[in-house]
Model the fold of this input.
Amino acid sequence: MVHISDGVLPLAMLAAGFLFTLILLVFSMRNIRIEEIPKVSLITAALFVASLVHFPIGPTSVHLIMNGLAGILLGRRAFIGVFVALTLQAVFFQHGGLSVLGVNAFNIGVPALLAWQLFEKRRGLESPHLEAVFGALAGGLAVLTSVLLVSLELLALGEAFNEISLLVIGAHLPVIIIEALVVGAAAGFLLKVKPEMLADSSSKIMEVN
Done:
């Protein structure tokens, strides 16, 4: 339900979505190393599969998004994974659509980047369970931001979409909690068994190498 479908948004909003998505793809792919590709592919597959796990909420259903998980694992490469996963979802399952791919990628990819930046704030702090705490915050923030972006875009279409925008927010409240718990647990677990899976400081925004 966090995917906006074809035929809903005006042409100007669709064009803006593709423009911003193109800019973010260039940023996300800049200086990518070949050894990063397997990890990006693995997380992209997880994002793709997450959309198949649906939960009935009242008259509708919602699915896992996991953009927060992508953010804490891939850093700025997260936008690549989000874009590819959404493209595959649109082609194979008609989740959203190709004309609205730019907007959907922006709505899910930008929060993934925000989750990464929030997760990075743990560095330099001395406290137990930091990865789990910041992972949970990042996971919840990513879904919340995606939901708010979708709701704002629907509200911009006029009063006819007011109820739908509120339904989007209400229906995803359980998803925010679930993903916060899942991402927090995943961050804490990976720190113990495979810390190199977590996004490292080498993917800084201002990286120039």
Observations:
- The chain has a mean pLDDT of 88.
